[in-house]
């Protein structure tokens, strides 16, 4: 049974070096700044040894009763000590700059990765988990890369150099070092694996808590309405108790590791001190040398203590590293079209843009098949409706058009009458999209509108709001367009938020407009008026909408029913039947 444990511990050491290598590679811009900081810390460690060596001279001078020389050496020692303080302050400032720079760059790198990653791969992570990785885990990685790693190197340098200086003063100490080194090495590794696993468990629990909090606060109205606040509170107690147990378990392993290593250090120090006193007693070394040896031994002991305290931090570092690395290694969305082609396509689309889907197959990565041989066509000036039971692929069809997910087989094209382009990530500039649910953000109405067109004039915004039948309401607000919305449009009704979302999509002024249940909260008259306004404002716009309400179907040029992985056009009789059933 001993062999697997040995392999596990060796694996941990290998993981530590992999973590350091990855951090330096990822934070390439800070490599030389980190090297400078490490150099400063090493210089400080060596300087501390030089400073310690002066203590022996002071002790010997005191024993010789040489007051004048002793006073000079004392002043010199004080000056050297002040310089040491200045070096410490400089090192602290460099460390702070390195940490903030690394934290900033790594957080932006991870945020950019989330923005660029494949949507399907992102769905493997709860948004609360992503938030935890983006904040807590990245902070741990930046803090330990900028601080812990250089400190560890400087402590090891101090221990090595102090040990060599001790051997220089008394070569016999090498035998003592050889005798006590295995004690320190073995005891420091006893709980290393348990500490690493417990820190990884804590990180996962913290992600679950963040995810649960986010779910609770996003649905706080429903929680209150159903009167289930106590149920959510009880579940939160369970999560917090789980976290507390994991945290205390990690603390137990850390304390046990520290205690064993500390007592081992006392044993090692006792052996060293006993040997030094024996050498003084036999007249081999002076009291001054004994003082230097004592201080050096103290510095080694303190450095070892600091290194032992770093073990839990190193384990937390590795746990956070693995979580951040998983995030940064998410595959990006595929870019298949050159941006110049998109620009050229847009310039030649004065008559609008058609959407053509032929013999299209699609399956989610979990193996769930949605479409087999689907065909759909939407042309400029047309309103196309997608109907069908929930879960049959209406929203998925819009995702395919947007390039958020990619068809396995078949054609998914945009056409301008002259050219054709495969729809994907880079063709999103041709599309305005209003998804299901509330997509308004905290901030003013003006800020929300200008998310899609930052240089939009007030007149353009007003026109978009009028088309969406919401401007009259906004005009009556005390602050007008500067009225502040709460989180997810808090303060406005669902219907008002839907019309704001439609107005924002219209402000983008793309040739294709996708509406995913975007009028579900509107009354029938307003719904029809909004759609009519859209087509009057831009008769060449291609509109594709999904709906469960057949009241709008009479305005559509074609209606496609999605069912059983197929897409088929339905006739007037079927449309009338849907309206009768509704």
Write structural notes for this entry.
It is elongated and about 115 Å long. Helix 3 packs antiparallel against helix 5 (127-169), helix 7 (192-218) crosses helix 10 and helix 9 packs antiparallel against helix 10 (287-328). The longest helix is centred in the middle third of the chain and has 53 residues, at 229-281. The strands form three sheets. It has a six-stranded mixed sheet, sandwiched between helices. Strands 2-1-4-5 form a four-stranded antiparallel sheet, covered by helices on one side. It has a two-stranded antiparallel sheet with strand order 7-8. It has helices at residues 2-26, 31-64, 67-116, 119-122, 127-169, 173-188, 192-218, 220-226, 229-281, 287-328, 339-347, 394-402, 445-449, 458-467, 471-475, 494-508, 524-537, 572-581; strands spanning 354-363, 369-378, 383-387, 409-415, 420-422, 431-434, 443-444, 484-485, 512-516, 542-546, 558-563, 566-569. The chain has 582 residues and is of the alpha/beta class. The chain folds into three domains: 7-170 and 323-331, ABC transporter type 1, transmembrane domain (ABC transporter transmembrane region fold, Up-down Bundle), CATH 1.20.1560.10; 171-284; 339-581, Rossmann fold (3-Layer(aba) Sandwich), CATH 3.40.50.300.
